Amino acid sequence: MAQAVRFHETGAPEVMRWETVDVGEPGPGEVRIRHEAVGLNFADTYFRTGLYPAPLPAGMGVEAAGVVEAVGAGVPHLREGDRVTYTGSPLGAYSTERVMPAGSLIALPDEIGFDTAAAMTMRGLTASYLLRRIHPLRQGDTVLLHAAAGGVGLIFLQWAKLLGINVIGTVSTEAKAEVARAHGCDHVVLYKQEDVAARVREITGGAGVPVVFDSIGAATFQASLDSLARRGLLVCFGTASGPVPPIDAMQLAIKGSVFVTRPALADYIADPAERAELAGELFGHVAGGRIKIGINQRYALEDAVQAHRDLESGRSIGSSVFSL
């Protein structure tokens, strides 16, 4: 029998339970996968708290890597023993094994380990679409990135450096500032001690930045708007501190005819061809050593409650995984 983390009600980390589950055999268009490593993402907490609705009871987690153990009918592109990774629905990645839609799986190159894949698939694809799809960034552009020492942030910083993009990154502590600098952050702002928008204006000679990448949400929304150049774009791709406030359209005009978008990774990997292109570039950089994936926190899967406590406390740096 397999084991999995599930929740029967929304709330604090303690609502998660370690349970024995019956996985069963894959049906048409499905495979059974044995997990070798599972990703821990801040988005997982959104489902647990109910910010993102899910039918209850539900599994937890959207990212893992492992080996295909059985293949259902109508799946010509996968076979038993294939190494795969994935991110996205349906919930249930916090498990030792599970049945998955075959179309959700991404072939994992031999050069990339399972732990690395679980630490980078969601974060790396997020950094990929942010840098390659959201806005036509040019070499020499300067952008603002909140949570620069987070899992997405550290991949984003390295990729931006490859593209010749300058990054102003915000972090909460000097320890995180050192990590961000080591990964290529050009200017670090300690947001608990400094006025973020004022520092951005100072660094950019008063102009502001063409794009702000904000995964924090409520706590940083105003500073993000105030950091934009005329006709700049605020990309709200996460809500770690809570949802952004209602947007007053007139304020967007007053701030310089700025734009706000709230993208979701799912809409940038829904097309198999686009997902393959984004993943191929990401995997190529990682396999080639141009982007390094640091795993700074490791947990046993049955310790998911503690993992979520650490994640929500802000103590985590970079990527975290459950190693099986």
TrEMBL record:
Transmembrane segments: none annotated. Keywords: NADP, Oxidoreductase. It comes from the Bacteria. Residues 11-322 form the Enoyl reductase (ER) domain. InterPro entries: ADH-like_C (IPR013149), ADH-like_N (IPR013154), ER (IPR020843), GroES-like_sf (IPR011032), NAD(P)-bd_dom_sf (IPR036291), QOR-like (IPR047618), Quin_OxRdtase/zeta-crystal_CS (IPR002364). It holds the Pfam family ADH_N. One of its GO terms (cellular component) is cytosol. GO terms for molecular function: mRNA 3'-UTR AU-rich region binding; NADPH binding; quinone reductase (NADPH) activity; zinc ion binding. SUPFAM superfamilies: GroES-like (SSF50129), NAD(P)-binding Rossmann-fold domains (SSF51735). The keyword NAD does not apply. The keyword NADP applies. This is NADPH2:quinone reductase. It comes from Saccharopolyspora shandongensis. The lineage of its organism: Bacteria, Bacillati, Actinomycetota, Actinomycetes, Pseudonocardiales.
